[in-house]
Amino acid sequence: MADDEEKEEESGSDKPPRNIKKMAIIGVAVLALLGGGAFYFMKHGHKAASDVPMTPKEMEKLIKHNPIVDLKPFVVNLDTRSGENPKYLKVRIAFKLDNPQVGKEVEYRMPEIQNIILILLGSESSEDLGTTGGKLALRNQIRHRVNSILTLGRVTSVYFTEFVIQ
Predict the structure, then answer these.
(1) What distance in Å separates the CA atoms of residue 93 and residue 72, rounded to the nearest whole number?
(2) Counting beta carbons within 10 angstroms of the beta carbon of residue 106, is it exposed (0 to 12), middle (13 to 18) or buried (19 or more)?
(3) Which of 138, 107, 108, 105 is nearest to 121 (CA)?
């Protein structure tokens, strides 16, 4: 009887159970499929929208329906604490509009828009505008304030095309 138990133990240690073999085969197959899928995706996978060029008609439609208005440069004195040397900001701003009619309204209201922007810029400090967060906050404030006076549409984006603090 002891001999039978020893034989079973010896024979069991030589051959791995069938379940382990099956799991190993399945694991290798899954890894092969994942590797093949990853290879296919890298070579032939989904292309981002920015990778696909626009046709001339699509570009013309985009420009026609969402014009960009470039404003003249602004040069302002930044807010400084007493005793500090004066700091100046030269900034050039462009607006992306949601429809062409807003372009005409922006042109008509340009003195109001310039006034809004000059007052806003003059209240900023060089420390605030020296950070990315400060610039992003300023963009949002300009967009919000300009949109508050527009009636025919909206400014969807504000772009700084020049930004110099001296």
Answers:
(1) 7
(2) buried
(3) 138
Which H or E run contains 36? helix 18-44
Alpha carbon 53 to chain centroid, angstroms: 19
Q: Are strands 88-97 and 155-165 parallel, antiparallel or unpaired?
A: antiparallel
Whole-number Å distance between alpha carbons of 23 and 85:
74
Q: What is the pLDDT along the chain (166 residues), one digit of tens a residue?
A: 555 555 555 555 555 566 888 888 888 888 888 887 777 777 766 555 556 688 888 877 777 788 999 999 999 999 887 667 899 999 999 999 999 999 999 999 999 999 999 999 999 988 889 999 999 999 999 999 999 999 999 999 999 999 999 9
Contact between residue 147 and residue 156 where contact means Cβ atoms under 8 Å apart: no
Distance from chain centroid for Cα 124: 25
Is-above-0.70 flag for pTM? Answer: no
Domain boundaries, the chain: 2-44, 59-165
Distances (CA, A) of 151 to 14, 74, 79, 98: 85, 24, 31, 12
State whether CATH 3.40.50.150 applies to domain 59-165. Answer: no
